[in-house]
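Sequence design from tokenized structure. All designs in this work follow the same two-part layout: the structure record, then the generated sequence. An example of the structure record is given first.
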């Protein structure tokens, strides 16, 4: 047996013995379409919420019912013997009263989050954090400074071709202007660059965020990427209500209802040519 044949046989044997994970199917046609068109569809959903009173009233009622009895924090493990950290409790109380530097309470932030869920079926909470690092540049400690509700039209997930979350951008958690297209780099401050999972666009300025900095949820129609706005499930009905409301509003603005003149005739051509026919606008 030749040395070339031995080499080929060895390569084949190594490949057959190698453990290979099942290949992911990636993002299907529907999800690919949703990923590229999520912003335009959300724009239509928010337009309908603003213009169609029956829909906006339903969204408002859902939000009011969610917070009708307020909310409270419960201990996830009441039987735990761990010593209570009252410093963390005080910090939590401050967040309830003031969740961000804009002065919003946590209830107001969550109320806006619920509103976005009911309109767009996509809700995002951004956790603005401060970081401390170990001597290797890895994140050792993180502290939440603010909680913000992000408009779903201004944020998108970064997804690989096989459908896994995470883009081809690595950023410094402290200095967001430092970014690379591959892993393994460090910032000038010594921090290891972390993979970005979300991208926001505000005034044409892109910002990237880490996986644990954004909390995402879909309420009605969750999928591998995004939810689906419920308004688009009943688009024809809402558009009918929309034009009906416009017609009614036009009546009150003009002070007279739009009318239809019915003239029975067997000779339509003669009627159209008659100078006595009045045309109403």
């Amino acid at each position: 047996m030749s040395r070339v044949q031995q080499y080929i046989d060895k390569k084949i044997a190594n490949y057959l013995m190698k453990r290979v994970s099942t290949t992911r199917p990636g993002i299907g046609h529907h999800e690919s379409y949703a990923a590229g068109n999520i912003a335009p569809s959300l724009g239509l959903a928010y337009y309908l919420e603003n213009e169609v009173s029956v829909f906006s009233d339903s969204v408002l009622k859902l939000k009011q019912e969610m917070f009708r009895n307020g909310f409270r924090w419960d201990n996830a493990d009441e039987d735990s013997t761990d010593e209570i950290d009252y410093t963390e409790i005080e910090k939590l109380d401050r967040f309830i009263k003031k969740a961000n530097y804009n002065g919003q309470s946590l209830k107001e932030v969550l109320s806006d989050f619920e509103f976005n869920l009911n309109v767009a079926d996509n809700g995002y909470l951004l956790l603005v954090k401060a970081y401390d690092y170990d001597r290797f540049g890895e994140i050792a400690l993180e502290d939440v400074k603010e909680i913000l509700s992000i408009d779903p039209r201004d944020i998108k997930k970064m997804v690989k071709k096989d459908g896994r979350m995470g883009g081809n951008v690595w950023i410094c958690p402290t200095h967001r202007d430092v970014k690379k297209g591959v892993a393994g780099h460090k910032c000038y401050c010594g921090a290891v660059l972390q993979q970005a999972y979300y991208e926001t666009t505000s005034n044409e300025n892109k910002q990237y965020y880490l996986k644990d900095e954004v909390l995402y949820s879909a309420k009605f129609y969750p999928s591998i990427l995004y939810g689906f706005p419920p308004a688009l499930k009943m688009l024809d009905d809402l558009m009918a209500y929309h034009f009906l409301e416009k017609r009614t509003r036009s009546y009150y603005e003009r002070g007279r209802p739009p009318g239809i003149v019915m003239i029975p005739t067997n000779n339509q051509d003669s009627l159209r040519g008659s100078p006595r026919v009045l045309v109403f606008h």
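Residues 169 and 181 are 5 Å apart (CA to CA). We note this feature because it recurs in several other targets discussed in the main text.
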